[in-house]
């Protein structure tokens, strides 16, 4: 298991790519972001996007899922999310597009978190199949320290 002390600033990971289907887009948006350019293919054609697009929140949720996959594969220990900053939706994710992420550790500290955890700041960037960056944000979390009494 990887603990706070094992993490290095500058450490980076890349995820697998996931494909996004029309059904994925409509299902997510119907529940969480019911706007015509996310839920109605025919109506979406008359919008600024010209076609059905994933909700930005759907894109962010996919990035989060991919982040967890790569961190679990890398053997990270118990982590706790504390929020995100500087979320930017640069371009939409269309039906049939793929999404992959690059995840980089940009800072770590122990100054304000409980003794059992250290603070980790990361930069997450999502790319489509053309290697165009379509979403970016900074994640803030806490990672368990080696000598904690957690768990």
Automatic annotation (TrEMBL):
Which InterPro entries does the UniProt entry name for this protein?
HotDog_dom_sf, MaoC-like_dom, MCH/BMMD
Q: Any idea where the MaoC-like domain is?
A: 9-109
Q: Which Pfam families match?
A: MaoC_dehydratas
Superkingdom, natural source: Archaea
Membrane-crossing segments per the record:
none
- What name goes with this protein? MaoC family dehydratase
